[in-house]
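Ticket 4471: requesting a sanity check on a complex prediction with copper (II) ion. Repro inputs:
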Amino acid sequence: MIRTAVPALLSALLLTATAAHADFAKDLKNAALQKANNSAAEKLGIATPAPEGAKVYLISPKDGDTVSGPFKVQFGLSNAGIAPAGTQVDGTGHHHLLIDDPQVDLTQPLPATDSIKHFGKGQTETTLTLKPGKHTLQLLFADWKHQPFNPSVASDKITITVK
Ligand SMILES: [Cu+2]
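Returned structure tokens:
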């Protein structure tokens, strides 16, 4: 009994080991492929297709609001996830806040300036201090390499008054 059971057990173990090895090899191959795709996309500046139905919006302040002092800006997102900059995960990106309508080339990675703020750690809010007067705010969601999605995923532009 035992004599016949052992080879059966061994071959079952071997089969499992072979399957696990195949999975591991497949994972490695996929990881290598992903890495190659990522570096090609980065070098060639290829835009990531926008996640299906992705939308960004300003939770606060609202269009027409008057704010004072340092004020909180909260970012809303639906149908997409957030990942830190530099981390490529399908269906994710990070927020950028456009202040006072800067010129933006939607086909290029976004520069970091006083009017284009990156939230590459995956933040979903910030505190802003702006000069008194009227200002506009707009969110622009971009991929792991700071490049806007295709089509771009941006919020409505709101106008606020800072006292
Ligand atoms: Cu960025």
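Notes from triage: The chain has a mean pLDDT of 90. Leaving this open until the requester confirms.
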